């Protein structure tokens, strides 16, 4: 059962809480298949999307999730807000609270911002990505997607391939899948591997072919082109040559392996189009599942006694 | 203190009588569909359906409805909601839907069930069948078919145990503190 009013990271969740969220999400997935895709539990509640970083899919997913639960949604878009006039984060947060919001969905380029908000506000805070720290709803939707294909997590080999250093998705996925008993492999150039993840009970490969062998699930990460100014690798062509997920490399994994990507994809950089659009790709399922998982998170947090 | 109110014979008789009443009131089973409310009503709906099928020698649609997302106590209940399966096997437009639950108490579950059902279509009629009506309504809701009316005090608990074959059925009243 969910104990916290906030979803700050996977690190803070117990295995039981993770399964409770995923089970609830499967109820919402059924709702999304109906003609009337809306249910009433958050009627009269207000969700504020506070995004300090550009995002289309996560914001839209949260917005639609809230609307499907009958909540009202306000999108706080930073370029047009008082933040550009010099307002502090704390003042922005208190303003949102004073407007009567019940949830703040926050994305920020600095790790720990959601944790800071959770201490100064008594309403529910949902982390939609904080710096390179966590992106918990992405990991929950990844779990939900893997479970829907593999029926279990324990004992699976999950290969995460790409830019680990800049990836909050990778961090949340590592926490989530190791907590539930999967073997997690990280495949990346040594320059894109942060030192501290080695302590998280994972295997590290700098050779893609080695790391992909017999994997059940392959998660390709987006190469964050906007954060590569420091020359972590020579060129995009070389990155694709060594780490891009091609049809040939995919053959090294188990024949029923599934291919995932959190989006948005750089086709021809971290993943070949033929793989992204191929029969083993579940990338579009992830999007649908994301909506169900975010509905589950909003719904369950609404039921936590504050 | 707990007291056995009904045993498996009592329950089987009640279900059989309700099956007859449902058929009689609706003049047969054309356009009829049974929907059990999760979780106590689902098995009861199946039991009623098989009685009705035996009497009429025809099949009847039977489904399950989860009302978790339609409840009005998300913020007031102690325990957190656990979502169960919803399975409405047929279109309910212009049908007569008999909602089935084990115990009718405040009527709030039935209100939620009607809201949930109406999101699936527009039934011509919604009727209500319950095994136990224990009183204490908080909403203007009544049962069309009741297995047994049992006067209770508000803090009592009624527990209904049903199994597939009807061999271990029982209804128990656990007296509450007043």
Features of this protein?
heterodimer, A: 306 residues, alpha/beta, 5-stranded parallel beta sheet, 4-stranded parallel beta sheet, 11 helices, 9 strands, 15% strand, B: 178 residues, Rossmann fold, 3-stranded antiparallel beta sheet, 3 helices, 8 strands
Tell me what you see in this structure.
- The complex is a heterodimer of chains A (306) and B (178).
- Chain A has helices at 15-31, 57-68, 89-98, 113-120, 136-150, 168-179, 208-212, 236-243, 247-250, 273-276, 283-302; strands at residues 46-51, 72-77, 103-108, 124-130, 157-161, 183-187, 203-205, 217-220, 258-260.
- Chain A is α/β, with parallel strands linked by helices.
- Chain A has a five-stranded parallel beta sheet with strand order 7-6-5-8-9. A four-stranded parallel beta sheet of chain A has the order 2-1-3-4, with helices on both faces.
- In chain A, α6 (168-179) links the parallel β5 (157-161) and β6.
- The longest helix of chain A has 20 residues, at 283-302.
- Chain B has 178 residues and is of the alpha/beta class.
- Chain B has a single domain (8-74, 84-152), classed as Rossmann fold.
- Chain B has helices spanning 8-25, 40-56, 108-118, and strands spanning 2-6, 32-37, 61-65, 96-104, 125-133, 145-149, 157-161, 170-174.
- In chain B, the strands form two sheets. Chain B has a five-stranded parallel beta sheet with strand order 3-2-4-5-6, with helices on both faces.
- In chain B, α2 (40-56) links the parallel β2 and β3 (61-65).
- In chain B, α1 (8-25) packs across α2 (40-56).
- The longest helix of chain B is centred in the N-terminal third of the chain and has 18 residues, at 8-25.
- Chain B is globular, with a radius of gyration of 16 Å.
- In chain B, 41% of the residues are buried.
- The mean pLDDT of chain B is 92.
